[in-house]
Amino acid sequence: MLGRLFQMLEGLGTQVEKDVLLDRYRKPELNAVFTEEWSSLTKQLLKALPYSLTSSQLSAVSEIIWDIKRPLPMNRLLQGDVGCGKTVVAFLACMEVIGTGYQAAFMVPTELLAVQHYNHLLDLLEKMEQGLQTGEISLVIGTHSLIADKVEFSALRIAVVDEQHRFGVIQRGRFNSKLYYNSISSKTAASNSDGPLNGDVCMAPHVLAMSATPIPRSLALALFGDMSLTQITGLPPGRQPVETYIVEGNERGLERVYQMITDEVEAGGRVYLVYPVIGQSEQLPQLHAASAEFEAMSSRFESYSCGLLHGRMKSNEKDEALRRFRTGETHILLSTQVIEIGVDVPEASMMVVLNAERFGIAQLHQLRGRVGRGARKSKCVLIASTAGGLCRLKVLEKSSDGFYLANMDLLLRGPGDLLGKKQSGHLPEFPIARLEIDGNIIQEAHLAALKVLGMSLDLQKFPDLKAELSMRQPLCLLGD
Description:
It contains 16 helices and twelve strands. It is of the alpha/beta class and about 475 residues long. Strand 4 (about 155-160), helix 7 and strand 5 form a beta-alpha-beta unit.
């Protein structure tokens, strides 16, 4: 922890900068601004929202805008459970930057989600009293294409990385360094701002990483000890609890589920049917496949309309499949996990996942979060291939709290090589500590490191500690 934080401080020039940055961690209660201090553009978007922010959302926006107003690049992780409203918090942060004359970039893992965010933001902007009439692009929403060499920014001030766990470690690193490089080479900033730009357009952009896969605090500190952490707790009013059923995928179990689907559609609901793979595999014949079973499902539910959605389809085909499901032309949508992240169809009321044991607990929790967004009471059915696969899934039947499930996932799978490229197993960098067992020690170490640096930013008062750190290989989140 000390190595992480010391390395972060070493990258800053002045004592004042170091003190300001350290205060973010020592005094998180200071990291807030009142709405009166927001830019006029941010206030307009807040006013245009068709609902009020929860106190947790408002607190999160305040912390982020406090960071944005500092003369230091923000490095913040925004965590929250599925459906807690992180996207609107990020939109408000982008408006704060645009309102002071700069650009914002919003990177998401899938094209479907990019289009959805784009349409959502356009709807909100149309309700605002005035538009963004600069004639220039102030905000860009895209996938990993934003890290392409040909993409350049003139005055980038914030980069939002949505669902950061879906981007590889190297991808995230390249994205950050690209934005840093382009912002340093910026020459101009937009002139329609609320206040003076103070000639600081050369500052590296703020980075706001977002994750709807809740991470236990101990794990977050080990992974992101040099980031500010913001958590949105609770769900916005109106979100329906989702009933979860665990079913064995034998003939009897499948018939039961198919009857549940029929009952749901007859009652006016819409159903997601999620598969682990697109096509049938000779190596894994036991896996249900979306394309292979499309005709069979269409015949079984011949009174209703079935649709198909997967990652190999062309963009216009994916858009059309989702549009038909959203409008109700399609009643049952056969899909792969491409719908796991962010897809929002309030009328969808039932989620069925085949071969559910092939998915991680966090993934299944994400999929379950695609329903329960409208007025209808919703349900989620997880079908296990074998009786042995039922036990691990039972935890989802017991709880819908993403942070509790994340802790269980940590215990079951181990944290993975979090500082490198490996995604599961145990950490070679922590030969003594086990994150799933020693979480409290990690949190105490974080507090102790802050206390030490608070007493001596350059560690001159602690020569032995400084000598020990200098002998260790520098830590790097981003891999080679």
